[in-house]
Amino acid sequence: MTKIIIIGSGNVAQQLIRAFAKNTATELIQVYSRQKNIPSSLLDPTKVINDYSLLLKADLYIIAVSDDAIPTVSAQLPFKNRLVVHTSGSVALGALDDKNRKGVFYPLQTFSKDKLVDFKTIPICLESENATDFQLLEKAAKSISAKVFAINSEQRKALHVAAVFVNNFVNHLYEIGNTICYENKIPFEILKPLILETAQKIMTLSPQEAQTGPAKRNDSKTIEAHELFLSDENQSTIYKILTQSIQNNGKKL
Amino acid sequence: MTKIIIIGSGNVAQQLIRAFAKNTATELIQVYSRQKNIPSSLLDPTKVINDYSLLLKADLYIIAVSDDAIPTVSAQLPFKNRLVVHTSGSVALGALDDKNRKGVFYPLQTFSKDKLVDFKTIPICLESENATDFQLLEKAAKSISAKVFAINSEQRKALHVAAVFVNNFVNHLYEIGNTICYENKIPFEILKPLILETAQKIMTLSPQEAQTGPAKRNDSKTIEAHELFLSDENQSTIYKILTQSIQNNGKKL
Questions:
Q1: Which of A127, A151, A175 is the last residue of a domain?
Q2: How far is B54 from chain A (nearest CA, A)?
Q3: Which of A172, A196, A232 to mutate to test the interface with B (most CBs of B within 10 A)?
Q4: β pairing state of A26-32 and B83-86
Q5: Distances (CA, A) of B228 to A162, A195, B236
Q6: Three-state DSSP class for A63?
Q7: Residues 6+ positions from B167 with CB-CB distance below 8 Å
Q8: Contact assessment for residue B31 and residue B5, using Cβ atoms and an 8 Å cutoff
Q9: What is the CATH number of the domain that holds B101?
């Protein structure tokens, strides 16, 4: 059975620990956590260490730490020629220390401490230096997720940028919607079904097919009224730029 | 029982016809459709007319036509002192002709011909000139939806702008994500679970609590790398402006 060790205790690490701890196809033999803050409900505390010298021999070491810490942590590992992967969307394979075999195990999802996710539905993007390591990664990934993809470092960079657009930026537009509601004494609740349907719509339609609204139909009267309504300069700038971008897309087709 | 007539045959009209046709608390007695293009599966064809002079007496006339057509259609109705409402998010109550009692019956959702929606979950925003009409509207709205709100014309204008941000603009960001994937030979499928989770997250967290990403954590290294990656000028502009907006929000708190 594939023996796995996870290094880290942040959001991604905890979700991976949760997924691998209950997994019967692999064995989570150890977790390195500097503060040893892994709930005992999640993992037998005797398996949690905070000293690199105590690391056991495993088939796969998953470094789930902040992007900046990946080079340092991978350099501190007291062994060589083993398979070591990181979990970051924005760090290249080459950031890992040369003494071990490198790989990437990137679960593409937004993780919050307070919200459990079903790992089965989370795409995992894999990369490795050779085919044997890729097979091992693929087996481990498929044991916790139904969606596993081979994504190289260049593609992963693109994917991370795309994820910023559809996650971080989308959430910021939710926040602007929330602010407009609040300032006009409208419960934000009213917008929630629309927000859900907007996301659900593109599960079956392409975003291009799903596009509606005044910008799409070149309804300049409504656009002008909206621009007049928006007194906040920042909101107004965002409105103008996204409206133009929708209109230019239309022209390109 | 409240007798209802719907005027129009576009997306909103058809969804309303579907909701009211199977509703036992109200009676859909007639539909005006210029092209008489209402599927017989939806409504008994003898109830579909395309001549205003054939309009029966009803308690409530719902004009579900394009924004621009609302004043004309409401002026053409061959009766007075009855309750006439429109279904638009961006048109004021006053756009309706003065000869009848005015109101608004605005279902806040994105409607596509190809995708059925469950009306029960759709917020309906109501406005009327007097309390008696409001009660009638409220009863009709509650018979098809569990979410009914009193929203005046000023608030509705704000709500419509907010809806553009969380629906039209959000969908456009999905489209940019899709484009970036396509150009880098990445299946857009990979982003779909993230898109759904981003929407679902704010059902329990506020958008402010849910915000993550390089802009939120002032990760200038990642932001610079993303800006370098984006060769499309339009995408790059949107990236910069939304990143700045997230960072400025952080400063305000």
A1: A151
A2: 33
A3: A172
A4: unpaired
A5: 14, 31, 9
A6: strand
A7: A194, A195, A198, A212, A213, B110
A8: yes
A9: 3.40.50.720
Retrieve residue B232's tokens: 């499309």
The CATH number for B191's domain is 1.10.1040.20
Q: What is the DSSP string of A133-175?
A: HHHHHHHHHHHH-S-EEE--HHHHHHHHHHHIIIIIIHHHHHH
| Chain B residue with minimum CA distance to A239 | B165
- What order of strands is seen across the sheet that includes strand A26-32? A48-49, A26-32, A2-7, A60-63, A83-86, A101-107, A124-128, A148-150
> pLDDT tens string for chain B (253 positions)?
999 999 999 989 999 999 999 899 999 999 999 988 898 998 999 999 999 999 999 999 999 999 999 999 999 999 999 999 999 998 999 999 999 999 999 999 887 666 677 889 999 999 999 999 999 999 999 999 999 999 999 999 999 999 999 999 999 999 999 999 999 999 999 999 999 999 999 999 999 999 999 999 999 999 999 999 999 999 999 999 999 999 998 666 5
Q: Which of A97, A131, A151 is the last residue of a domain?
A: A151
Contact residues on chain A for B177, CB-CB shorter than 8 A = 162-163, 165-166, 207
Report the number of distinct structural domains present in chain B: 2
Paired with A86 in beta bridges are A63, A104
Per-residue pLDDT at A111: 74
Residues B198 and B80 grouped into a single domain = no
Query: Which of B81, B33, B86 lies closest to B63 in space, CA to CA?
Result: B86
Task: Report the first-to-last Cα separation within chain B, whole angstroms.
Answer: 52
Interatomic CA distance for residues A200 and A195, integer angstroms: 9
DSSP three-state, residue A216: coil
What ipTM is given for this predicted complex? Answer: 0.89
Mutate to test the interface with A, among B161, B178, B208 (most CBs of A within 10 A): B161
